[in-house]
Amino acid sequence: MEKSIVLENVNFGYDKKILNNVNLEINKGDFIGIIGANGAGKSTLLKIIIGQLKANSGKVKILENNSRDKSIGYLKQMNIEVGVSFPITPLEIVTLNLYGQMGFMKISNKKIRSRAFNALSMVDLKDKAYYNYNNMSGGEQQRVLIAKELVKNSKILIFDEPTAGIDKDSKELLFNILEHLNRKHNITIIIVTHELEFSKKYFNRILELRNGVLKDYSEVNTW
Q1: Structural domains in the chain (count)
Q2: Residue 161's CATH number
Q3: Which runs of E-coded beta strand occur in the chain?
């Protein structure tokens, strides 16, 4: 099985150890749920994977394109992400991640817009490309932010509590879209969640972080 992310003997903590000799191999195409009590270190683990935090010891290897920036899309909790104070469309938000490819004048061309529309199509929002983002539902805003990561050809999507603040129908639609991205486009997905009963049917692996130790339930049906 081809690997996407590998953690080797990762330790992290301040006065108290949060991660204790964590070893983990994530395969390309995995759909992983990470669970654990509040304060267990789940968000810390994500931040170490994406490079926002540096482990005290051990190694984190990103084998997809050998690059975090090119490979990983990371979405924080919705109540942190949302709150744009000016009118902006989903198309404009998604295009922001192609800013470096717009040339000297920083004007989006037909190719850039086509890529943005394609990303919005992948999350079933192409028909709302010109809506006011601030007037969209929480679930729709979450999907716009996913498209923003997809437009840079991310092969790994990492979420921290993606269902926080959205209703049941939006949760189901979100996970159905993520399942499509995982199966149809072979995108590796890692999700921290407190809603295991709702989401476990989508995962092929469940990881539990407890007392700094990561346990891997490779067979979800045994959970």
Answers
A1: 1
A2: 3.40.50.300
A3: 3-13, 17-27, 31-35, 57-62, 72-75, 156-160, 188-192, 205-210, 213-217
Q: pLDDT tier at 81 (50, 70, 90 boundaries)?
A: very low
Report if pTM > 0.85.
yes
Tokens standing for 99?
A: 């800013």
- Secondary structure tally for the chain: helices H, strands E: 8, 9
Residues 6+ apart with CB under 8 A from 168: none
How many residues does this entry show for the chain? 223
Q: Which domain holds residue 82?
A: 3-222
Q: Which candidate, 157, 150, 83, places its Cα nearest to that of 117? A: 150
In terms of pLDDT, which residue wins out, 195 or 68? 195
**Does an H or E element contain 93, and which?**
helix 90-95
